[in-house]
Design goal:
The structure is a homodimer. Chain A is of the alpha/beta class. Chain A has 13 helices and 16 strands. In chain A, helix 3 crosses helix 11, helix 9 packs across helix 10 and helix 11 runs antiparallel to helix 12.
């Protein structure tokens, strides 16, 4: 038995969540439903314009790892924060959830701060993300603990981490450690515009190294430059062992070799869509590392996604195991 | 017309809200339902023991001011934060709500940090507060803008501010400015143990200067050292123009001279009792500064308290004016 079920690598950040009317997005140049990278000046300007907010730890892969830990899985997380109050909050929340997190901590003298994501939630529950990466941008190959990765069954790589000067090298080191240590590789495409920025690097990694690919409809179509969702699914499935592709209220499609399953979405009152994909991935990975089949894992993903969009914040609040029981999945 | 309806003076802090089972309180020496002062070491120790949390701006008088501002009242707040990330969050959330807040900012070189309150919410919705005052403890007479107070109809003083080396002097300066500038004085007793620590100072201030006193059942009985609630109410009412005393699910009692009204509590599913008294006071003060009678103001207080305990965090989320309309109060 390996020490960890999943080691996740991602951009460490704290979410600053505020409600905003549709008009606010237009007036402030925020594009709806996606993640935009912003610099510190823009972060300060945008923050001064938004309404009262609340701060809840986020970061895509960190949410996924928190979800797996919440379910009782053994997890570790790799991502960089600064030795500041937001960094402390991020580290606390992950550890308090039961995940191992050896902070790659940037010192107080570092100018950049802990990353943050200003998440604007419109009345329809959709989230529009504005990310100041801060120190998390500088995760480098030396921050990767290759021994830790070898002690894990899976590594989970966050697509957003393709942004950043040494990101690709850091992922290469992690993948090499996974391959030589017998860990399988999962990747999430994260965002259609992130795919746009790094399509070639994504493609090379997917076809050469990725065992399990997470994506949503927009991301997979951007990946394969097609308007045809079915074509994108087929091409994705051909590149990896397992493709798990979410399609919002239409649920998720799981493809592996010639098999294909559909997991229905669980209807809920959407308060805040932040973290839907992250928790889908978390529950899915918990399922596959705990002896469940791909179809069940997909259903678990949909249950967890439904829970996380029913409240503000991208980390689980209700007991996911109890929800899995309620839906007859465990 | 004066520039402000209410200027509030209180302990500026960010709440760190986490769910905790009853056993956690016992095991960690947290007394249920009250506010305990803790030092930084204890704050670090307790924080490392609690589960994942979320950060939402708090501070008793600041919540009250946020409530009045949310309703459209003209407000200002006086309280001290440090030039750190939590200080920034506190200042942002108050200003974003529409309140004037000229931060009395302690510099980065200051060792103490922005105050925080670790709020543990048990399954029954009760909150147990553990407060590290940090720099807010050092609000001094020089931080009081006497001119600003003179430009207000009311000042609202937070009982918790009786803790701190120069607190009493700061309040004396504020009261003097109010009296000479024609502002009336409201005070909240804040907490029974806070009353215990400073009973004589509270009593002197109440009988000499306070026009409107806010308290709950436990606080007013502690104030007058009696087990007889009715006696405590009578004695309180004799000391001030108006006494507004809340009694949890039994609603609120409003006493003025020989008149007395009862405002019923609005039943709700209690998620987190944090801020109930603060929002009662906010809505009450909004009512009395906007031409409503004391009975209506009391009813408004109960509606606002009911809203704030129906979710996590001590600042209003739903539209309070719409709720007042729904209850036929405006």
């Amino acid at each position: 038995m390996k020490e960890f079920h999943v080691v996740g690598i991602g951009n460490a950040m704290v979410d600053i969540l505020a409600h905003a009317p549709e008009e606010f997005l237009e007036q402030n140049g925020v594009e709806k439903g996606i993640m935009q990278l912003i610099d510190m000046d823009r972060a300060v300007e945008l923050y001064s314009s938004i309404g009262p907010a609340r701060e809840i730890s986020g970061g895509s892969a960190a949410n996924t790892i928190a979800g797996i830990a919440h379910l009782g899985g053994r997890t570790a997380y790799v991502g960089k924060v600064k030795d500041d109050q937001l960094g402390e909050i991020f580290a606390h929340d992950l550890r308090a959830q039961g995940a191992t997190y050896e902070t790659r901590m940037a010192p107080k003298s570092e100018v950049a701060e802990t990353g943050r994501c200003i998440v604007l939630v419109t009345p329809d529950g959709e989230r529009s993300m504005n990310t100041y990466l801060g120190v998390t941008e500088h995760l480098s190959p030396t921050d990767i603990d290759t021994d830790q990765i070898a002690r894990s069954e899976w590594i989970y790589l966050e697509g957003y981490r393709f942004d950043g000067p040494e990101s690709h090298e850091a992922f290469a080191v992690a993948i090499e450690a996974a391959k030589s240590g017998g860990a399988r590789v999962a990747l999430t495409l994260s965002d259609p515009f992130c795919v746009e920025r790094h399509r070639d690097a994504f493609r090379a990694m997917i076809s050469d190294h990725v065992d399990l690919l997470f994506a949503n409809r927009a991301e997979i179509m951007s990946m394969y430059l097609t308007d045809d969702f079915e074509e994108a699914l087929s091409r994705g499935a051909a590149d990896v062992d397992v493709l798990a592709c979410t399609e919002s209220e239409k649920g998720a499609h799981i493809l592996s070799d010639d098999d294909r399953w559909h997991a229905p979405a669980i209807p809920t009152d959407i308060k805040d869509a932040t973290g839907a994909g992250d928790l889908f991935a978390g529950a899915f990975l918990w399922g596959v590392t705990h002896g469940h089949g791909l179809e069940t894992a997909g259903r678990m993903g949909c249950v967890a996604a439904s829970e996380v969009i029913s409240h503000i914040g991208a980390r689980p609040e209700a007991d996911l195991r109890a929800l899995f029981q309620k839906h007859g999945l465990i």
